[in-house]
Amino acid sequence: MPHTRVGPVAAVGVHIVDVLARPVEHIPEGQDTVLVEQIRITAAGSAAGTAVDLVKLGAEVSCHGAIGDDELGDFLLAVLGRHGVDTAGLARRTGEQTAASILPIRPDGGRPSFHVPGANLTVSPADVAPEAVLRAKAVHLGGMDVTFGLNDPGFLALLDRARAGGTVVTMDLLSNMPDLLTAAKAFLPHVDYVLPNLEQALAMTGAADAEGAAEALLAEGVRGVLITLGGDGSLVATADGVRERVPALEVPVRDTTGCGDAYCAGFIVGLLHGRDVLTAARWGTAAAAKTATGLGSDAGIVGLDDILALLGEAAAS
């Protein structure tokens, strides 16, 4: 059935080009060649990857951050534009490389990576138009542990102004580096929902398990914490007392790249459709499951009806 388009959503932060190959069982010695089934190049990263999924799920989306003035930047603008993302808010940095990753995907869907952070490290508040934040129904902060230039009093005050006007602010992370993750805690008092994976949540808090990490993050002032647990689903905890695990959905896994971005997109779209936090988390779970069935962060998701159908199938089984 047709759904009302939601948004606008401003995706702020990390923009990456991913080059993926699958299946890769080993890195060949010397100059040997290994044949693989598939190679793809996609728009990815905690902001760009989520933006593409948001559009697929029926949201109006703009991207804000920095990319290089290079061929990878040209590609990123082209692929985001083809999906329908507004890229006018992406600054181009002369002499900087567009962030990129090479991902040899293992047969079980695991994804080691080779990464260049590039222009993402240069993002500053000047790259984010205040009017885009203030008009947004949702602002998604993707990778504030890497775009640490946004940890600025003026930008944090802008988020507070947007929230006071009814904007929902969500935050995802990119790295697993404890120092960067600890620094990203400065954003939490200005965020409604934070969506780390388990390793990130434990590193941010020093907690021993997901439940302890969720409580510690709630104590920082957010309304809700959604910790993604891979094949074990996610843990949802809110300031008003929700404590519930949402199970993952059974699907054939080809590649786990971008599952966290898809979870964020499904969750945000659920909120914008007026769903409660647990229902929105289930929408995110279904979006992540669909992404795992393809190769790359933009794979698997066809549209919102497809996501809701997967949830219906899960409920009926």
UniProtKB/TrEMBL annotation:
Instruction: Kindly give the Pfam families that the UniProt entry links to this protein.
Output: PfkB (PF00294)
The protein's organism comes out as: Thermopolyspora flexuosa
Sorted UniProt keywords? Kinase, Transferase
Carbohydrate kinase PfkB domain location is: 10-297
Keyword NAD, does the record have it? no
InterPro entries listed in its UniProt record: PfkB_dom (IPR011611), Ribokinase-like (IPR029056)
According to UniProt, the name of this protein is Sugar/nucleoside kinase (Ribokinase family)
Q: Disulfide bond among the record's keywords?
A: no
Which GO molecular function annotations are given, in alphabetical order?
kinase activity
One CC-aspect GO term: cytosol
Q: Which domain of life is it from?
A: Bacteria
